[in-house]
Amino acid sequence: MKALSIPVLLVIFWASLPAGFCDTDPQDVAALQSLMRGWQNFPSSWKASNDPCGAQWDGITCNNGRVTSMRLSSINLEGTISSSIGQLSELVYLDLSSNSRLSGPLPTSIGNLKQLTTLILVGCSFTGGIPQELGNLVQLSFLALNSNKFTGRIPASIGLLTNLFWLDLAQLSGPIPISSTTSPGLDLLIHTKHFHFNKNQLTGTLNGLFSSSMRLEHMIIVTTLFTFIRLFDNNQLSGSIPAELGSITSLQIIRLDRNRFTGAVPTNISNLVNLNGLNFADNQLSGTMPDLSALTKLNAIDLSNNSFDPSVLPAWFLELKTLTSIDIASGGLYGQVPNRIFTLPELQQVILSNNAFNGTLDMTGNISQHLQRVNLLNNRIVEANITQGYNRTLVLVGNPVCLDSEFSSSRFCSIQQDSIIPNVTSITKCGSTSCSSDQSLNPANCGCAYPYMGTIFFRSLLFADLTNNEHFQQLETGLWTELGLQAGSVFLSDISFTSDDYLQVKVRMFPSTGTSFNVSEVTRIGSELSSQAYKPPPGFGPYFFVADPYAHFAGEDDSGKPKISTGAVAGIAVACGLVLTALTSWAIFSFLQKRRTEELSGQTNPFASWGIAQKDRGGAPQLKGARLFSFDELNTCTNNFAENNEIGSGGYGKVYKGILADGTSVAIKRAEYGSKQGALEFKNEIELLSRVHHKNLVSLIGFCYEQGEQMLVYEYVSNGTLRQNLQARGIYLDWKKRLRIALGSARGLAYLHELANPPIIHRDVKSTNILLDDNFKAKVADFGLSKLVADTEKGHVSTQVKGTLGYLDPEYYMTQQLSEKSDVPTCTALALSC
Ligand SMILES: *[C@@H]1O[C@H](CO)[C@@H](O)[C@H](O)[C@H]1NC(C)=O
Ligand SMILES: *[C@@H]1O[C@H](CO)[C@@H](O)[C@H](O)[C@H]1NC(C)=O
Ligand SMILES: *[C@@H]1O[C@H](CO)[C@@H](O)[C@H](O)[C@H]1NC(C)=O
Ligand SMILES: *[C@@H]1O[C@H](CO)[C@@H](O)[C@H](O)[C@H]1NC(C)=O
Ligand SMILES: *[C@@H]1O[C@H](CO)[C@@H](O)[C@H](O)[C@H]1NC(C)=O
Ligand SMILES: *[C@@H]1O[C@H](CO)[C@@H](O)[C@H](O)[C@H]1NC(C)=O
Ligand SMILES: *[C@@H]1O[C@H](CO)[C@@H](O)[C@H](O)[C@H]1NC(C)=O
Ligand SMILES: *[C@@H]1O[C@H](CO)[C@@H](O)[C@H](O)[C@H]1NC(C)=O
């Protein structure tokens, strides 16, 4: 009974002991395993070892045994995030972007990741609210949650993230929180350089959001769904653009378009002397058009679709020499279109449709070389003098000049197709090579390969001429050089504007060698693009990247196929081998042949007449005892030993789950050639296990010894190993259950020691050898190393030391004398190690 009480005590301490022999902190191992359980398609390197840091799991980086970074962009992860993620307390970097089948809510335990500086979840399908616990992540500098399915409000606690550099939220509703005496607000984010709120349904005003100490570079509050609703209470004018905005003089890009701002544009806007892009389109702004003459760095300006007072085109426009794009459609403008506007040296686009310009259009003289498009649809122009040879777009449809019989046949009086935007790199040099549908031509070598593909969305372009290849050539070159790809191995296509005025560019990136990227390459590239580590050439402005799923990873033999989520792991974590000496194999073989003959004769259905006559008696008796399985039978029931039936592995080989013809679930331990243990252990285990039956011992159902295979067929224990449960369930495995498990394990061992005949010493008691069933009942497994206690030498046997290093009884190790006491696990043996 001494042997019974000591394990009880020790098992209770099991969870709290430090790591023994692996590089990774057990808490982190447990958290990762719990995440794995909720996921499909995690990298196969994660299955090969229980030691993420030591074995270098793809996408995981460690420091001193703690997981510090998870970069898992674009690898088809599917499932939800387990709340155990909160245990990765040293995590600094978390990028799960572009896994569109990651769904469910963001667990609030994410607020425990106090070291986190980067959180990127762009392009997934997370739902629910953004947890206010994010406000606990005081180190956070990069927070990108856009392109998900989040709902609800922006938590005010985000305002506590004073180290935030990049804030990118999407699809939320409610007001932007502003601080008060009782609550934080986003106005506290004075170090944040990027505010991106796209595709939201925010309401309220921007009043109070800006302070003079803010360091905003990009302020992007855009899109059709973002509606600042005017509040009509107490005559307070709200819903106007706050004058304080004028104090953030470092601002480079501001988009407030597609909202419902009202009132006049504050004059303080003219303090924003560093502004490159200004877009106030599609609001209800009124009053006189603001004087922006001081904004001498302005490239793109869009004031279209507002309610400004009718006026002539303000003269200050003609002084902004850096302008590339002017859009004042529906701007209430009249008078002559000044000729000088077309001479602005950088000008690419002028959109003045739906105004009241009258008189003569004079497009002669030194007009901009870059001018690509002039749109004067629906004005009152009666005459036009256009420079000879102007061959770009000019739309005069809807002007009286087009009723003029001479002019009406001109191409300017019909809607002209915008020029086709060419692909940047021509692949015509590759001739007529064609690739299978999921491959593409790599322009670098004209070979077919699986590209890593996605879409880059540029949120505020500072140029307008998409037919000018120069920009996109720079973009292409920049991508392959900065992302460390082979020269020429990037292909851009499908360049167009979205309805929100974002420029989208489809990008294909090709592997430098072979036809596929491996997991670490894809996560690396995805991470550089999602974290803005890649900087596009000037003019493209801030962007975000959403990748298409990559399904052809090099080195992942089962790529594309969903892997099991390891939810239910029947554990048989034993060693078994195939090193056969000619002698032992002959001995075993003859033993088994004899056994097999017996079994086969048994298989010629001794109960053939039973079922026919006694249908209502529930069929033939189900006899217990190890039976012989044919290779074909096991092959069929595991679906050719399919990888997704794999439920465990070890030095001996792999364990598969199978379902027998009668519906029984089994765990099949299939020895690998070259395993350390041999035929002797195989026979040993069959003999032992077929003899012992106890509710706390895993029972053997049968075996297979055919076609060079050694397989053991066990009952399937559904809830995994004790170790997995301690690690994954952590606190959910309460003390009562732990005590029951400890008692159960001790009963199983006591049976082996005291009641089995001859007595059996397990020799390898450890948490991975204790399995749990549905009711958390313990079942001791792995008798491969068991030793019958011979009657020799006063109850102990002298033998070659076997077992798992680190779990060995030190006394046994030193003396090589084995006794029942050797099964009383030492502290080290019970420690949570790998
Ligand atoms: C904005 O400009 C107006 C007038 O120039 C000035 O009275 C006001 O103080 C300015 N507000 C801010 C916040 O700079
Ligand atoms: C301005 O209004 C017109 C007509 O309603 C619309 O076609 C156009 O898309 C609007 N422009 C913007 C920038 O929203
Ligand atoms: C036309 O404009 C370009 C660019 O501003 C300038 O370099 C050139 O001298 C101008 N030519 C004439 C004839 O004014
Ligand atoms: C253009 O329209 C304005 C305002 O309607 C008017 O004062 C002006 O005379 C018109 N000019 C021409 C040339 O028709
Ligand atoms: C068009 O402009 C050119 C150059 O300014 C001028 O010489 C010519 O007379 C104009 N033609 C008409 C019909 O106004
Ligand atoms: C337009 O004309 C310029 C110079 O005359 C020429 O270089 C260019 O190719 C032409 N573009 C088109 C689209 O015809
Ligand atoms: C650009 O590339 C895409 C994708 O290969 C192709 O479908 C499209 O036809 C190309 N466009 C042009 C103008 O060559
Ligand atoms: C992945 O591919 C890159 C580039 O081909 C190579 O340097 C790296 O060693 C590969 N990593 C693995 C784990 O195979």
From TrEMBL:
It comes from the Eukaryota. Its main location: membrane. Residues 1-24 form the signal peptide. ATP binds at K669. Keywords: ATP-binding, Cell membrane, Glycoprotein, Kinase, Leucine-rich repeat, Membrane, Nucleotide-binding, Repeat, Serine/threonine-protein kinase, Signal, Transferase, Transmembrane, Transmembrane helix. Its EC number is 2.7.11.1. One of its GO terms (molecular function) is ATP binding. This is non-specific serine/threonine protein kinase. Belongs to the protein kinase superfamily. Ser/Thr protein kinase family.
